[in-house]
Design goal:
The protein folds into 2 domains: about 1-75, no CATH class; about 80-460, no CATH class. It is about 75% helix and about 0% strand. The protein contains 20 helices and 2 strands. It has helices spanning about 1-20, 20-35, 50-65, 70-75, 80-95, 100-115, 120-125, 130-155, 160-170, 175-180, 195-215, 220-240, 245-260, 265-285, 285-295, 310-325, 335-340, 365-395, 400-425, 430-460; strands at about 40-45, 45. A two-stranded antiparallel sheet has the order 1-2. Pfam families: Wzy_C. It comes from Arcicella rosea. It is found in: Membrane. InterPro entries: O-antigen_ligase-rel_domated, WaaL-like.
Length: about 475
């Protein structure tokens, strides 16, 4: 009965997505991605996020049928983005398990693309102007406020009834309870999301997004206080995620923005606040100091006493992945080969994959084993095209806000790459590329605004 209740909620969200336009539709979509966990099948074998992404794609096609080709042509990363799709299709064609079955090839190769890369294009087209982006950011950060409030409830009560209900309904393991019990040596929260480490990445994106509103945009005093409170709540949640990779990837992103995105006065202020906050946490919260020290030990050969990988273990995983890669180096072994053929499971007791692979704690291993050189090259080209695009905006910008926003996006990209190569993707593609799609349209809008102002000034000078 409860399963039907969640299905009705899902259909209700899709209906609201269909009725809404632009920012409102984007808000409903991201609400679904953020608040409906992805580790359980919502409809038979259909995972939640795939259902919402597929629904958004269908709505987009229905609403934009007459100018669909025009929208694709106007997408700034269309060629490298399309190359990723072609790469997955080639990998699936070469997958001996699919036996050249056209339907399976589309479902596997196209399905992986839909799950992870399609949203960058869809969300790009849900924003029209930079003002739309600001409005979308405000709504999304309010969602982060709700996530952090429930996360604080998790901290205080050591209970996550939402995930318990969903786990009971769909008969899946309650990972929230597992991690809050401290069985891996740490108490960790996940709020409305399916996994603490994934939640840590989501929170990192929220912190970086908040910088746009708090530093680059002039807000009313009351609004600024609201978003400062949300930022504080998000930081508290991140500390209780108690995971290294989200923490260090966020630090890297913040450093990029600090060094390249702020003027000297703001650099000094930002640095002073960061040092002050870190000093308070290190001296007054012993567990935070212990966590930082143990995290730094990860980079030693012995590793830290926290459960996870040392440098030595990473090298073992890489050697094992390269061995499988050598069997089919060009096209890889196919989508989901790690789970279906090597027997990997996120639940250790159900895992039959070789112990050398441990937890497959890097997206690199998935690329090597499943996607081969075709996937590696196509996705590398895509990532490089994003970076060159963002750097181009940084170099050619005539306004401070466009330059700052481009650098903020570089910080987000670096944070994302460090995370997926540091601990695996864990479903982060859909949230990162959704945000990236929004940001790309924001940058395009700022560029057109600059060009219009330059043309206007030139016309005045001609007169």
């Amino acid at each position: 009965m409860e399963g039907y209740f969640f299905q009705l909620i899902a259909f209700g969200i899709v209906y609201k997505m269909y009725q809404a336009v632009y920012v409102e539709r984007l808000a409903w979509f991201l609400f679904a991605i953020l608040f409906i966990p992805d580790h359980f099948p919502l409809f038979s074998t259909t995972i939640a996020s795939r259902f919402f992404i597929f629904s958004l794609m269908c709505i987009f096609i229905l609403k934009n049928y007459n100018n669909l080709i025009k929208k694709i042509k106007s997408f700034p990363l269309k060629y490298s983005w399309g190359a990723v799709l072609i790469g997955f299709i080639i990998t699936s064609i070469a997958d001996v398990r699919l036996k050249l079955d056209f339907v399976k090839i589309i479902l596997w190769g196209g399905g992986f693309f839909l799950d992870n890369f399609l949203v960058v294009f869809l969300c790009y087209n849900l924003i029209k102007t930079f003002d739309d982006l600001i409005r979308a950011y405000k709504i999304i950060l309010l969602f982060f406020g709700v996530l952090s409030v429930y996360g604080i409830y998790n901290i205080v009560t050591r209970d996550n009834f939402y995930m318990s209900i969903i786990s009971n309904v769909y008969g899946v393991r309650d990972l929230a309870e597992v991690y809050m019990s401290g069985r891996d040596g740490r108490f960790r929260i996940s709020s409305f999301t399916w996994h603490p480490i994934y939640y840590g990445f989501v929170l990192g994106m929220g912190i970086l997004m908040s910088l746009l509103l708090l530093i680059s945009i002039k807000l009313k005093t009351l609004s600024k206080r609201v978003y400062l409170c949300i930022l504080l709540g998000v930081i508290v949640n991140l500390l209780f995620v108690n995971s290294r990779t989200p923490f260090f990837s966020l630090i890297a992103g913040l450093l990029i923005f600090l060094v390249f995105g702020l003027d000297l006065q703001k650099k000094l202020r930002f640095t002073f606040i960061a040092i002050g906050l870190s000093s308070i946490l290190l001296t007054s919260v012993p567990k935070f100091s212990e966590f930082v020290n143990d995290s730094l030990d990860t980079f030693s050969s012995k590793g830290s006493k926290l459960e996870g990988s040392s440098v030595e273990m990473r090298n073992m995983q890489l050697d094992a992945a390269l061995l499988i890669f050598s069997k089919n180096p060009v096209t890889g072994n196919g989508i989901d080969y790690i789970i279906t053929n090597l027997g990997f499971s996120s639940e250790v007791e159900n895992r039959v994959s070789d112990s050398d692979f441990a937890g497959f704690e890097s997206y690199l291993y998935k690329m090597l084993i499943e996607q081969g050189l075709i996937g590696i090259v196509s996705q590398t080209v895509f990532i490089l095209s994003i970076m060159f695009y963002l750097v181009g905006h940084t170099v050619r910008s005539k306004s401070t806000i466009r330059k700052q926003f481009a650098i903020l996006n570089i910080a987000m990209l670096c944070c994302f790459l460090l995370f997926i190569f540091g601990t695996g993707d864990l479903g982060t593609f859909k949230i990162y590329f959704s945000i990236l799609g929004i940001n790309l349209k924001g940058l395009e809008s700022l560029k057109m605004k600059e060009q219009a102002m330059l043309a206007q000034n030139a016309a005045i000078l001609d007169v």
